[in-house]
């Protein structure tokens, strides 16, 4: 203990003597008895003699703070949102122009063909909606069918696509444009003008929808809705033209035997053409509407069948059962059975075209109940993604 204490005393003494010598400039006392000041010597800088580093190059501005990153992302989203609004207005204007062109031709009785101008305006609307859906796909990172707004955009695009299919498959189907173009316009107007902004924003998918089946199942179901709606509209047009033309212009029922004997009857009755001309070509319009309705519903029924099967497989992966009698599943089955009755009566039974058109036109309401009506109640496994509770 004494050695440690001695060391501490010696150390403190050295520190004290060194401090005093430093205060007195290295001597304890001068010869004249006065204290001498230590000279002010400037210490050399440690960087003296070194070469200055070169100036760094100017780097691009990078958002380093969360606030700057938020501002950059917000500006990018605003730009993308503005572009989406422009595309929506282009699609709306093109469909509005297409509707006006077809209705003006219908007012003058020219319903047989598709003009170049009508095709161009419908093509611009279809392209604008397609680009809009692709942009939302890129922005959200998933297929754009996660809410009501995106599904309505897809439905409007699907109706315009079915219109193109009918226009190029049957060139003399101009009567279809008078019904398909206002329907696509109404769907797009409801999506862009009536839905609130919070339902138009792209949202993240719920865990049940994060699957590759989203593209397969939902897209096929939406195309089935679009195609079935077009078929029901053509049946509605058939009933309107039949009502305006009178009983004489109604088409006869064609069963299996009558359909086989139809060519012989046409050869045996050459005066039939004069009888058709007396009704102003309305029998041709009735035949066109009936044929378009049959083709559209046949294609939509195939889409609906594939959609129901793929939905059952997806439900087994997500919820553990192929069928749970969910309200959406139940109404999809009702829709399938309804149009199956139409096809059965149209092909195998001697139903008149007017009767089959009445059944098909009623399916317009069934499809809308299956598509939107079930989601209004907010119940079942399919209640997410359309309306906020």
Summary, kept brief:
It is built from eleven helices and no strands.
Description:
69% of the residues lie in helices and 0% in strands. It has helices at residues 2-23, 66-107, 116-140, 148-169, 174-194, 213-245, 256-268, 272-277, 282-319, 327-347, 353-376. It contains eleven helices and no strands.
Q: What separation lies between the terminal Cα atoms?
A: 82 Å
Helix-residue proportion: 55-70%
The number of helical elements comes to: 11
How many strand elements? 0
What string gives the helices and strands in order?
HHHHHHHHHHH
Largest sheet: none
Q: Structural class of the helix and strand makeup?
A: mainly alpha
Shape: globular
Spans of 5+ residues with little confidence (pLDDT < 50)?
1-40, 55-64, 68-77, 254-279, 385-389
Mean residue pLDDT = 74
Spatial extent as radius of gyration: 40 Å
How are the secondary structure elements laid out?
Blueprint (H helix, E strand, L loop, with lengths): L1 H22 L42 H42 L8 H25 L7 H22 L4 H21 L18 H33 L10 H13 L3 H6 L4 H38 L7 H21 L5 H24 L13
Question: Which terms summarize this structure?
Answer:
disordered C terminus, about 400 residues, about 0% strand
